[in-house]
């Protein structure tokens, strides 16, 4: 914070509260969507304690927020050295160093950040001849949509191998990451900063597979079922969860409900978000929906494990129907659902 000693004594939490007050309720509400419950509670309490905020405080906090945001953008664009040079020209050496120091204590620039700004089709030209482990490492740090495009573009015999390597990946040595980045940096002539982070894992490859076309996904799963059945089962279990029912169109869900045991359905709905239950009730007759609600109401306490097992049974029905071509689950952006 730059200004009076009173302003400099403000804590980060107080600055956040003042920023929210300055932004007003509409923009503050949008920011709340990107915060967890504990953060929202702390900031809300701080806002309640600030009944009066001077115009000078608002201006100082907004100025600091803007400077920090721009500094973060500069780091993402060209690295720490580039960000420092730009900030020094704009704010002077002392302020620039202060901003950089505060950002680098909390900000971790993810490896291969420069690749997330690269078109996936162009990216393929740089990595298609790399070892599958190198491709897997790069894909693990890409956005899921980018990684899905890259995975779909790989030769069929490489797709399952790369998918498996991403799924079993845990942590990678910073030295290995830096070496891979250096090779790509020479090709793209980009300046990059990196830090020790973890990537990959089953959830990572599931996010990618949920965005590729059904043919690519099926080919990868079938190969994994032969090469690593346990891993294939872990991936399939996460590919479509019970709450994803809201993604089904009404007619598809109606077809699914005809195949699901009523007892399994009532147990599965026992502890589920309201929008999921509403979606199910909407696609049943009024009489059937009322009976199902009554059965759930009189069910009494149940074990979470039993609920999860019932939900998995419903998911298995959906996956079986998809495999048979009776329904098609929407995948990726712009992918329409067909029955």
TrEMBL record:
Give the family per the record: Belongs to the FliG family.
The protein depicted here goes by the name Flagellar motor switch protein FliG
What Pfam families does UniProt report for this protein, alphabetically? FliG_C (PF01706), FliG_M (PF14841), FliG_N (PF14842)
Which NCBIfam families does UniProt cross-reference here? fliG
Give GO terms for biological process. Answer: bacterial-type flagellum-dependent cell motility; chemotaxis
Localization in the cell: Bacterial flagellum basal body; Cell membrane
How does this chain sit within the bilayer? Peripheral membrane protein
Q: Which organism is it from?
A: Selenomonas bovis
């Amino acid at each position: 914070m730059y200004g009076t000693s009173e302003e400099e004594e403000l804590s980060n939490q107080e600055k956040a509260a003042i920023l929210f007050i300055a932004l007003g309720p509409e923009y503050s509400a949008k920011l709340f969507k990107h915060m967890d419950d504990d953060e929202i509670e702390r900031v809300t309490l701080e806002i309640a304690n600030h009944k009066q905020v001077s115009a000078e405080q608002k201006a100082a906090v907004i100025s600091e927020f803007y400077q920090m945001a721009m500094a973060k953008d500069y780091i993402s664009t060209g690295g720490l050295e580039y960000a420092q040079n730009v900030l020094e020209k704009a704010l002077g050496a002392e302020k620039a160093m202060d901003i950089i120091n505060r950002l680098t204590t909390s900000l971790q620039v993810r490896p291969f950040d420069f690749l997330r700004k690269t078109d996936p089709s162009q990216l393929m030209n740089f990595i298609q001849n790399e070892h599958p482990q190198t491709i897997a490492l790069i894909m693990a740090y890409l956005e899921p949509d980018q990684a899905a495009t890259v995975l779909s573009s790989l030769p069929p015999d490489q797709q399952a191998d790369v998918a498996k390597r991403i799924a079993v990946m845990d942590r990678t040595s910073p030295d290995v990451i830096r070496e891979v980045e250096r090779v790509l940096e020479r090709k793209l002539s980009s300046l990059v900063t990196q830090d020790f982070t973890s990537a990959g894992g089953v959830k990572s490859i599931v996010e990618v597979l949920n965005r590729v076309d059904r043919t690519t996904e099926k080919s990868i799963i079938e190969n994994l079922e032969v090469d690593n059945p346990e891993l294939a089962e872990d991936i399939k279990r996460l590919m479509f969860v019970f709450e994803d029912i809201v993604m089904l169109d009404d007619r598809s869900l109606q077809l699914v409900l005809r195949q699901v045991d009523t007892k399994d359905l009532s147990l599965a709905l026992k502890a589920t978000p309201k929008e999921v239950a509403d979606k199910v009730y909407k696609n049943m007759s009024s009489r059937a929906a009322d009976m199902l609600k009554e059965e759930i109401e009189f069910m009494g306490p149940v074990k979470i494990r039993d609920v999860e097992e019932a939900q998995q049974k419903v998911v298995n029905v959906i996956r079986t129907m998809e495999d048979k071509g009776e329904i098609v689950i929407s995948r990726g952006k712009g992918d329409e659902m067909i029955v």
